[in-house]
User: Which sequence fits this backbone?
């Protein structure tokens, strides 16, 4: 079983070196409350429960798990289209890492990239009527950002630097159209940059000797949360979409990583080791005292908000192995929805188009 480079990047952002998992207990008493998820909302995730990493779909409202891919090669890191009808994912079924897309029923997986180099890190644009897919590729000798249509056509290189460019994150507003925030080392260290959806107007947003990375747009496209090491450890910062209005949200000696905006833009979930192991916290996006949502000896991380803000999916090792959980935004009613002795990872909600 091969975990690709993107897994390594995410693990580093989530918690540095992960702590060992300790046995715990499932929150069986919360099973009924998981039914608060509408029947047409599902979570895609990666699991090696059948011997190698494959993609699965679970409906938190019914707890039914369905296998989507079935191939001896690695299939993982699902990313759902803005209309919730298709899943793009990474696969090594042809010998190297490429990007595929399939319908939500798992039928007819189509290969989108055919490069001998690695292609991955899928990011859908938000326009459901004309979506595009940004991704990372090393096909031209170093890691750059490309874009393509959902059928794989029109592949275009957006960045052209000898240094690393990656981690694309889309935004869309009526005034500014499509924009992509991304991470680049073109000026000597990792900083956050911005460009139009066609690669034009590439602009540096952060300027600090320390590392700035992991840009995450607010759902309205107005602000960017990110991780910065400018105070000798990882903290969460927020800035306006043009790089102005910088403010620091977390101030702890431990690492704070993986910012995830609530759909209404009022809160940011994140992962912190301030209690001695990775746990999930939440903080008001305008600032304030962070509130702890999880409290377990095992790892809790990778928070992902549901489109209506009513639940947060996350990964937990509280039962001794990695499982997918959902909980209320206040940390209550946490329940495992994957429930398997194998490793379950990287949840992705079936989203609905934003207004």
Assistant:
């Amino acid at each position: 079983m091969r975990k690709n480079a993107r897994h390594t990047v995410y693990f580093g952002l989530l918690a540095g070196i992960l702590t060992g998992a300790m046995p715990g207990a499932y929150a069986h008493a919360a099973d009924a409350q998981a039914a608060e998820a509408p029947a047409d909302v599902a979570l895609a995730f990666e699991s090696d429960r059948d011997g190698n990493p494959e993609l699965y779909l679970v409906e938190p409202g019914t707890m039914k798990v369905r296998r989507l891919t079935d191939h001896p090669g690695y299939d993982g890191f699902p990313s759902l289209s803005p209309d919730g009808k298709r899943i793009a994912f990474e696969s090594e079924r042809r010998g190297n890492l490429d990007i595929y897309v399939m319908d939500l029923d798992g039928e007819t997986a189509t290969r989108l990239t055919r490069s001998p180099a690695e292609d991955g890190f899928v990011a859908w644009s938000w326009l459901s009527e004309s979506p595009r897919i940004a991704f990372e590729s090393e096909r031209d000798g170093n890691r750059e950002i490309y874009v393509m249509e959902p059928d794989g056509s029109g592949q275009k290189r957006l960045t052209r630097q000898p240094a690393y460019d990656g981690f694309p994150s889309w935004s869309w507003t009526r005034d500014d159209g499509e924009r992509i925030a991304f991470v680049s080392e073109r000026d000597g260290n990792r900083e956050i940059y911005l460009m139009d959806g066609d690669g034009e107007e590439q602009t540096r947003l952060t300027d600090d000797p320390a590392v700035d990375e992991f840009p995450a747009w607010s759902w309205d496209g107005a602000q960017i949360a990110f991780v910065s090491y400018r105070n000798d450890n990882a903290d969460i910062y927020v800035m306006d979409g043009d790089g102005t209005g910088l403010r620091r949200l977390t101030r702890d000696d431990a690492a704070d990583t993986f910012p995830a905006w609530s759909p209404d833009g009022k809160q940011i979930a994140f992962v912190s080791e301030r209690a001695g192991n990775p746990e999930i916290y939440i903080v008001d996006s305008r600032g304030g005292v962070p509130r702890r949502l999880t409290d377990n000896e095992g790892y809790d991380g990778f928070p992902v908000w549901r489109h209506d803000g009513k639940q947060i999916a996350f990964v937990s090792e509280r039962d001794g192995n990695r499982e997918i959980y959902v909980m209320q935004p206040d940390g209550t009613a946490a329940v495992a929805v994957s429930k398997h002795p194998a490793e379950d990872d990287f949840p992705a909600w079936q989203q609905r188009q934003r207004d």
In short: Residues 1-35 have pLDDT under 50 and may be disordered.
